[in-house]
């Protein structure tokens, strides 16, 4: 395996055409996407509403790669069972939405035999995650304020990555989400990220395959 093959690319369907979701999932899969990133927003944890369980259930019927579900919702424990049963392969919840119940949310996701991720918003210090790094599969470092695609990458957030890497077991996936393009992908990879989410960069490109390859 060469270095490039270790980067997991997870295109965010938030930037897809929702009237052509099946087509747009296939397009990124055919172009080499490793996962499909599904952004779930509740209008409370973030100031936007996106998609939920029925869409994950439909995606599961057509997707050939794992569904990487990013829950930007309050009280994630209320909905984890439904998302897991709908076909999520990885569920990432926000530290800020579950501060007093992190261990139980991790156990709940694990009970469905799927991967567990925890995400932190730009203003959250990486140290809050240190007690949990050996209990989870992935940390998702947000490099924009969650809620919308197409925002500009916030470089200072990516500086959290080496501190997380320094405390994490070797197999922890460190994913970055927000404002990822060819240039910011290089910054994140050089700091130790091995999974990148990209929405507008991939779906806004007229050559999806080249866009995905440029992130590796
Ligand atoms: C933002 C979402 C992201 C978003 C990324 O709240 O979590 O996954 O789709 O979009 P881009 O890549 O356009 O910044
Ligand atoms: Zn996301």
Mean of all residue-level pLDDT scores: 97
CATH architecture: Alpha-Beta Barrel
Q: How many strand elements?
A: 8
- Identify the CATH class: Alpha Beta
Small-molecule binders here are: D-xylitol-5-phosphate, zinc ion
Number of helices: 9
For the terminal residues, how far apart are their CA atoms? Answer: 13 Å
From the alpha carbons, calculate the radius of gyration and give it in angstroms: 16 Å
Cross-sheet strand order for the largest sheet: 1-8-7-6-5-4-3-2
Task: Say which CATH homologous superfamily is assigned.
Answer: Aldolase class I
Largest sheet: 8 strands, parallel
When the domains are counted, the total is: 1
Instruction: Name the beta content range.
Output: 15-25%
Low-confidence stretches: none
Fraction of helical residues: 25-40%
The shape, in one word, is globular
Indicate the structural class.
alpha/beta
Task: Give me the CATH fold name.
Answer: TIM Barrel
* Element string (H = helix, E = strand): EHEHEHEHEEHHEHEHH
Topology:
Elements: E1 8-11, H1 21-30, E2 36-41, H2 53-62, E3 67-72, H3 80-86, E4 90-94, H4 102-110, E5 115-120, E6 138-142, H5 155-158, H6 160-167, E7 173-177, H7 182-191, E8 195-198, H8 200-203, H9 208-215
Parallel strand pairs: 1-8, 2-3, 3-4, 4-5, 5-6, 6-7, 7-8
Helix pairs in contact: 2-3
This protein binds D-xylitol-5-phosphate and zinc ion.
